[in-house]
Amino acid sequence: MKRRNFLKAMGATAAGVGAAATLGAPSKAFARGKEDIGECKSLKITVLTETSWFDNDQFKKDIVDNGGASTNQYDIPWDPKNAGGYATLLEIEQLDGTVNKLLMDTGWSNEWMDYVYERHGIDKMIASKEIDTMVLTHWHLDHFWGIESTLKHNDKIKIYAPETMYPEDEKLLYGGKNEAKGQLINKNDVPFKGELVKTNPKQFYKLYPGVAIKEFDVPILLRVRGENVVYVNVKGKGIVTVTGCCHPGLLTLYSTARRQIKGGDQIYGCYGGLHISLFENWDPKMDDIIKGAKAFNPKKMGCNHCTGWVWAENAAKAGLPIVKGTNEYKTYPRQSAVAKDSNVFLTNGDTVVF
Amino acid sequence: MKRREFFREAFDESIRAAQKGFLSLQETFTEVNDAVQDVMDDTPGKGEFFDSYEMSYSLTLAYPRDMFEQMARDQGMPYEGVETIELADELCKRGVI
After folding, report:
1. Mind listing the domains of chain A with CATH numbers?
2. Which of 60-79 (B) contact A at CB < 8 A?
3. Where are the beta strands (DSSP E) in A110-157?
């Protein structure tokens, strides 16, 4: 009898409440060489900005009108008025009480990112080297094109980025500009002079005790490939995944933790975009993602950006531990057109502690 | 309340709680699709990106269907009646995605 059939049968016939808590958790993966990424005391996330763009319809129109989703992102004359950006501050408290600060992504519009950085004091943290490292999750415009806003405060900041960079990415990073159909779409007047660590899927990149980057080689639209995910192991609580867009998929991230990270069979939660109902579209198959996530028994799920409000609302109704946000985002100069009063997103200005 | 009634009620309550707990357990395992269970079981050769919608949702479900049809049309690929996951897999093999 296969394990799943065994468990189904057992669920129907066995008795005893105490067993439910034990058997409800996923089984441990086979004990084999697992990566020890260490442990930290806690992780605090500050949502600097998750509004990569403000109008979903305009973003989709820019894609469809310029050849579709397989088009090179550098060939699309994006509506500049729709540009925002994605960036997150991670504060990792170590077991000895010291705190490491890590920047994830650098947004899209320089005007928007300059505002966001000043509002949260990120500009000063970068300049003082309180933040000396940035993880670029992937090379999409809304996560990378605002690079000048970071480099203007420290052009030697250490950057971890997927090895799958294109010449246009390199041009922008090292000081340059790109045009699409005669329209300036990005620029960087501050050439990067620091260390660029090009990540690949073959290894874990350990940043601090309890914190490691894993790159996943996954297909992404707009001619981008590969995404970095930050794994954080919180002592006594388990693994937290921190993502930009989660293009590899949440269930892949959790299963990778179980298979490859010491202690990874205990999932604590996640933060970031989950890339499910990007344009607020709904497919009944998305219910299966909710069921799949529940099977891993996460305790805290902070989601936003490309997750889709509709999915987050349905996930919360289905019992997933979605952490609700506040109305802080309304004090930002602009808001997403799809933001809802249900507050199922952690959005601009919100924080969550794991 | 007599001592006998007290213990009978306590026993009945325990049985009800046990039944509730195991209905919850049964629901968990009957609702998890095979793709997810394979991942949890660490079944060799399973859990690859295009094995299921659960594993590839970030590509195959996140975008509207018409975007995949547009890419398939550009490639001269048939798409009517073809599952989105199959379209995405083929587009990926062709290097379009």
Report:
1. 41-353 (3.60.15.10)
2. 61-64, 66-68, 70-71, 74
3. 131-135
